[in-house]
């Protein structure tokens, strides 16, 4: 009489005789429309049009649905999608009216730019071009027409304002040189060099005609009624660079004073026809751009050579690094000479 052997302790699997049959390696069946096909079989779309349509709908839904474990908020913040908390496919799968309202809510400024784009496209395509025989049309000249006539009747007042404007240019220059030589901060000076270099290249490349109503003065900068580039305004660009540097150093009151004087300077330049409106606008943008370029230049140089622009770096290194003196070598007499 044979006794039935029990399975080993800790083994929960049944004996080999009761093991499940081996799995089949045949490819599984998949349903396409009303047909069941193997994975290796080929399906012709023309066999069942309804099945193909259902398959396309299922594919679109699968693409639109977020994957398992998908966190909309984290994904949108990392990828910066148009609407916070929505992935791209989920965003476009929503009703159009709701999508428009969410975009207007979260991005009002780009929406305003989009409206202005459409507006100015209509203005540009329907505007009559200025004839070659006519002077350039400048909207700033139109707004300052009465001030221009006021200064044209009073040459002495125009000379006083020109002298004050020259003093303001000297203030800009003095502040930038102070930041460079005294505070050892060269960013404003580098930005000014970038800006005036670009101004010289662009001003020579496109030489705009001097307005016929130009009110010149011998004390206006550059002093002496010399020729100058109209595009773009170095007066405005230098003031913007100095104002940005003041805000960087948290000199808020001085920065606001420079901004106010810069506004009055631009108003005077338009009234005296010393610059076109586009010269002043590009001067403001050039100030911001050249300051950013100067900051980027300093970052690049700091990685390669630290404190390369600091005039006191050599003195500090000399004070911090101790001088290692070599011991004096004294020759001892040879024993035979004793």
Trace the largest sheet across and list its strands.
1-2
Q: State the major sheet.
A: 2 strands, antiparallel
Termini, distance in Å? 115 Å
Q: Beta fraction of the residues? A: under 5%
Topology order in helix (H) and strand (E) letters? EEHHHHHHHHHHHHH
Structural Rg: 39 Å
Helix segment tally: 13
Which descriptor suits the 3D outline? extended
Q: What do the pLDDT scores average to?
A: 76
Number-wise, the strands total 2
Helix content: 55-70%
The low-confidence parts are 32-47, 70-83, 314-325
Which structural class do the helices and strands define?
Answer: mainly alpha
Can you characterise this structure?
The protein is mainly α. The chain has a domain at 140-306. Helices cover 56% and strands 2% of the residues. It contains 13 helices and two strands. It has helices at 49-64, 72-79, 88-92, 96-106, 108-126, 139-143, 145-152, 155-181, 187-205, 234-248, 252-271, 277-304, 313-320, and strands at 29-32, 35-38. The chain has a two-stranded antiparallel sheet. β1 (29-32) and β2 (35-38) form a beta hairpin. α10 runs antiparallel to α11.
Descriptors:
338 residues; mainly alpha; two-stranded antiparallel sheet; 13 helices; 2% strand; extended
């Amino acid at each position: 009489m044979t006794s039935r052997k029990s399975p080993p302790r800790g083994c929960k699997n049944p004996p080999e005789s009761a093991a499940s049959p081996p799995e089949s390696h045949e490819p599984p069946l998949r349903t396409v429309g009303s047909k069941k096909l193997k994975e290796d079989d080929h399906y012709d779309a023309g066999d069942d049009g309804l099945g193909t349509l259902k398959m396309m709908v299922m594919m679109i839904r699968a693409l639109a649905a977020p994957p398992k474990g998908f966190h909309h908020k984290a994904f949108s913040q990392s990828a910066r999608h148009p609407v916070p908390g929505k992935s791209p496919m989920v965003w476009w799968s929503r009703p159009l009216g709701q999508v428009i309202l969410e975009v207007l809510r979260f991005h009002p400024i780009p929406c305003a730019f989009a409206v202005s784009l459409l507006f100015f496209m209509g203005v540009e395509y329907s505007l009559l071009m200025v004839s070659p025989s006519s002077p350039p049309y400048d909207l700033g000249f139109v707004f300052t027409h009465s001030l221009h006539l006021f200064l044209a009747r009073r040459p002495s007042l125009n000379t006083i304002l020109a002298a004050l404007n020259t003093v303001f240019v000297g203030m800009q220059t003095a502040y930038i040189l102070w930041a460079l030589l005294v505070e050892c901060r060269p960013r404003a000076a580098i930005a000014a060099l970038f800006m005036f270099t670009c101004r010289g290249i662009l001003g020579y490349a496109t030489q705009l005609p001097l307005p016929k109503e130009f009110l010149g003065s011998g004390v206006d900068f550059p002093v002496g009624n010399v020729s100058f580039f109209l595009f773009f305004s170095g007066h405005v660009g230098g003031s913007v660079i100095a104002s940005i540097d003041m805000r960087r150093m948290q000199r808020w009151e001085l920065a606001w004073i420079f901004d106010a004087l810069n506004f009055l300077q631009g108003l005077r330049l338009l009234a005296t026809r010393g610059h076109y409106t586009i010269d002043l606008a590009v001067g403001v943008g050039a100030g911001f751009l050249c300051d950013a370029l100067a900051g980027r230049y300093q970052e690049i140089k700091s990685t390669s050579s630290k404190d390369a622009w600091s005039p006191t770096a050599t003195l500090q290194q000399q004070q911090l690094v101790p001088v290692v003196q070599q011991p004096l070598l004294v020759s001892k007499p040879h024993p035979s000479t004793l």
